[in-house]
From TrEMBL:
Classification via Gene3D superfamilies: Acyl-CoA dehydrogenase/oxidase, N-terminal domain, Butyryl-CoA Dehydrogenase, subunit A, domain 2, Butyryl-CoA Dehydrogenase, subunit A, domain 3
Organism in which the protein naturally occurs: Kitasatospora acidiphila
Span of domain Acyl-CoA dehydrogenase/oxidase C-terminal: 240-388
InterPro entries per the UniProt record, alphabetical: Acyl-CoA_dehydrogenase (IPR050741), Acyl-CoA_Oxase/DH_mid-dom (IPR006091), Acyl-CoA_Oxase/DH_mid-dom_sf (IPR046373), AcylCo_DH-like_C (IPR036250), AcylCo_DH/oxidase_C (IPR009075), AcylCoA_DH/ox_N (IPR013786), AcylCoA_DH/ox_N_sf (IPR037069), AcylCoA_DH/oxidase_NM_dom_sf (IPR009100)
Domain Acyl-CoA oxidase/dehydrogenase middle: 136-217
Protein name: Acyl-CoA dehydrogenase family protein
Lineage, broadest ranks: Bacteria, Bacillati, Actinomycetota, Actinomycetes, Kitasatosporales
Length: 399
């Protein structure tokens, strides 16, 4: 796809129609809803605020749209889903995270839904798809972020059931969730991890306000488990599948987070273009300065390159290939590229770029986080180097 800050997706007419309807909703009805409720990025999220967005998005066919038709979705390809995610982020809507179901909805569950039993689908996941329940994913701990195997949350057998004890942090959507997908170490083992569905109103389970990230958003919770009973029926997959399920979800999400960050970078480029066209310096628009033009050229070019490689990897994923190396590369490139774009956007906005309450200043803080979230840039480089050195055919030369 050629460069555009408002892609027309002419090569995929069904997607073009979806994008058109999505833009109308984001720029019209959802924008009005946010104005009516005075929503800002720092507004605490509540069920009362989000549920109308979940339900309306579902009525319009967007909530859980990536799911198979049997689960209530439209079976989108990863590339099509990425296009919608980019549009949501590029719209600047604060509640955009609830349109496709990222804030406690089907996108928060991700591919882990494939591991659910029929009973788990009926009791947990289908209500999430319908916007009746919400979930969060609990993997990270204070000293177990990039090194997830350092987690201390443990699961102890209690007859046929389990009891969980531990402290999870950065459980996004925790403030509105009904249940959590918790990854825990099986007690008495060194490296056997399992995944559990934990009802957040269970005895021994506390949902506490989480740390406020630098974006200022109130979307995180701590999940504190103290001898919390979990029925055997709530084990996801088999014992020992926890990291496979958890990190498998992370691997796909690593790639699927990239379109959202690209959308924010795209939004920043558009805001910057608008700014330099209207801001005058010495009686002329800022846009007439060659130094400014060069910055704009670099911002747009780097965005286009990062987007192209992301869609190339997504196409491979749609074709049945798991692009492990490319996912690491995309996460690294998108994170670093978007940060540079936002840094230049702040520079070109001047005082406005430094002022809290201005959109570009919020976007800078939000994008900066992505260099750490879902694996730091250093972790991505580690992954790239290991695959280059270990995998046959990668990094090889011919003589």
């Amino acid at each position: 796809m050629l460069f555009s800050l408002r892609p027309d997706y002419a090569d995929d007419l069904p997607l073009a129609e979806l994008v058109g309807r999505l833009r109308d909703y984001l720029d019209g009805e959802l924008a009005a809803y946010e104005r009516d409720h005075a929503v800002t990025p720092e507004t605490p999220i509540t069920r009362a605020l989000l549920e109308p967005v979940w339900q309306r998005s579902r009525e319009l066919g967007f909530y859980g749209i990536q799911l198979s038709p049997e689960l209530g979705g439209q079976g989108l390809s990863y590339r099509q889903l990425a296009a919608l995610k980019e549009e949501v982020a590029a719209s600047g809507r604060v509640l955009g995270h609830s349109v496709l179901g990222e804030m406690g909805g089907p996108l928060r569950v991700g591919d882990i839904i494939a591991a659910a039993t029929p009973d788990q689908l009926d009791r947990y996941f289908l209500p999430v798809v319908r916007g009746e329940r919400a979930c969060c994913f609990s993997l990270t701990e204070t000293d177990a972020g990039s090194d997830v195997r350092a987690m201390r949350t443990t699961a102890v057998r209690d007859g046929d059931d389990y009891r969980l004890t531990g402290h999870k942090v950065f459980s996004s959507a925790g403030p509105v969730a009904d249940f959590a997908i918790v990854i825990a170490l099986m007690a008495g083992t060194e490296k056997t991890y399992s995944a559990f569905l934990v009802d957040l109103d269970s005895p021994g389970c506390q949902v506490l306000p989480g740390a406020t990230p630098m974006s200022g958003e109130h979307i995180e919770s701590d999940i504190v488990l103290t001898d919390c009973p979990v029925p055997a029926a709530n084990l996801l997959g088999r014992e020992g599948d926890g990291l496979l399920l958890g990190l498998g979800r992370v691997n796909v999400n690593r790639l699927l987070h990239c379109p959202s960050v690209l959308g924010m970078a795209r939004r920043a480029i558009q805001l910057t273009l608008d700014r330099v066209r209207t801001r005058t310096v010495a009686g002329a628009p800022l846009a007439e300065l060659q130094s400014v033009q060069h910055k704009l050229a670099d911002m747009a070019t780097s965005y286009y390159a990062a987007r192209a490689m992301t869609h190339d990897a997504l196409s491979a994923l749609d074709g049945g290939t798991v692009p492990r190396l490319e996912a690491f590369m995309c996460k690294l490139q998108v994170a670093e590229t978007a940060f540079r774009i936002l840094d230049e956007a702040v520079q070109l906005h001047g005082k406005e770029g430094l002022t809290q309450g201005e959109e570009v200043e919020f976007l800078f803080r939000k994008v900066r986080m992505f260099r750490i979230l879902t694996g730091t840039s250093e972790i991505q480089r580690n992954g790239i180097a290991k695959l280059l050195l270990r995998e046959p055919g990668l990094g090889s030369s011919s003589s």
